[in-house]
Design goal:
alpha/beta, 3 domains, Rossmann fold, binds iron/sulfur cluster, 361 residues
């Protein structure tokens, strides 16, 4: 397998130690050694030494959610996310992607989303219509919200309406490229999708990105790939926290106690941890779960549930256990994918989005 010298160094330098063993949400859900960062590095190093074929490790390579908990914990500074993504890219270039991944990639190329969807639900379509006129502020919804959690996307729209923000929603919103980046890394196809999206976003003064996964990609990965957006790009959470500070959203702090599930894209990648808490504390009493802020544990997503649903359910159940074991009865999410994942696994615990709190739903 052709791999950059930098990645090879990270694969070979990962000492296959135990230091990040305990924090992998997938490894903890499956209980299998193969799902840890060190096992993945070992598999890739065997491919690099031509001891096994790349196709033999592909399932394993796609079991990593790229949450970066291992990167965050690796005291020696090695980056399993980097070598996992480069291995996916190489598998795409060598035609060795598993069929179930190829289906998702083809969908991304044909419809702009991995699910192959072309329509949003009627209620969202109707609500979005009144925002098709061009304004300075764009609300970027993202493919997960638009096609797989359209009621949540609708709530995101309603919150800005409630604050009387003048904003646009694109009639034909382009994908950010986040899904292709996850599936095939820095391939030309991924960069082309990102370039097209960056061009469209640059027509606005401010872009408010609803999904933390898109926010991470647009604010961080675009820069890594040399893609520029000529607009101020802000996370939905920071924008809404600003609306509350400016008195544009009415607040009323009830006595409901909740805990907050930090999306790793906000807390680890974009270093944003307090804005969502400011929103929560305007409407409820905030408790803290074990492993919060940068130490957060990923709670599942919609994309991986397409090909490993049982494991994603276990991932969500384990995170719910983190909350319920300290007596929490409600978890607030800021990521649409985690909302869907936790909601599907929730028993005896309420899953609430930030928008639910603000809208009182
Ligand atoms: S990534 Fe770092 S902490 Fe994890 S096994 Fe490799 S060397 Fe150890
Ligand atoms: S990035 Fe996350 S899922 Fe992947 S090996 Fe590291 S901790 Fe596990």
């Amino acid at each position: 397998m052709i791999m950059s010298e930098k990645c090879k160094q990270h694969v070979d330098s990962c000492r296959f130690c135990w230091m990040c063993h305990h924090i992998c949400p997938v490894g903890n859900a499956t209980g299998q050694e193969r799902n840890t960062a060190r096992a993945r590095a070992l598999g890739i190093s065997l491919v690099n030494r031509e001891a096994i074929d790349l196709s033999e490790i592909m399932d394993n390579v796609f079991e990593c959610c790229t949450c970066g908990a291992c990167v965050h914990d690796c005291v020696t500074g090695w980056d399993p996310v980097m070598f996992t993504k480069e291995t996916r890219l190489q598998a795409a270039l060598e035609g060795k992607l598993p069929e179930y991944i190829m289906t998702l990639v083809s969908n991304c190329m044909e419809t702009g989303n991995a699910y192959g969807k072309t329509d949003t639900c009627d209620r969202l379509t109707e609500a979005a219509k009144s925002h098709y006129d061009k304004k300075e502020i764009l609300l970027f919804l993202g493919v997960d919200a638009k096609f797989m959690a359209c009621e949540q996307a609708l709530k995101a729209v309603k919150v800005l309406e409630k604050a009387k923000v003048e904003f646009s929603v694109m009639e034909n919103e382009l994908p950010s490229g986040a899904q292709l980046d996850f599936l095939i890394g820095a391939a030309n196809e991924t960069k082309q999708q990102m370039l097209a999206c960056a061009k469209a976003l640059s027509e606005y003064k401010t872009v408010v990105v609803y999904d933390p996964n898109d926010a991470k990609v647009i604010k961080q990965i675009y820069k890594e790939y040399g893609i520029e957006v000529n607009a101020e790009v802000v996370t939905y959470t920071s924008f809404v926290a600003g609306l509350i500070k400016d008195g544009k959203l009415e607040t009323s702090r009830g006595d409901k106690t909740v805990v907050f599930q930090d999306p790793y894209q906000l807390s680890r990648d974009l270093k944003e941890t307090e804005e969502a808490r400011e929103i929560v504390m305007s409407y409820a009493v905030l408790g803290e779960m074990l492993l919060n802020r940068e130490e957060t544990v990923w709670a599942g997503n919609i994309l991986m549930a397409q090909y490993m649903p049982e494991i994603i359910k276990k991932v969500a159940e384990r995170r719910i256990f983190n909350a319920t074991s300290i007596g929490a009865t409600a978890i607030v999410t800021a990521c649409v994918s985690e909302y869907v994942s936790l909601k599907a696994a929730a028993k005896d615990v309420e899953i609430i989005s930030l928008e639910d709190l603000i809208l009182g739903e």
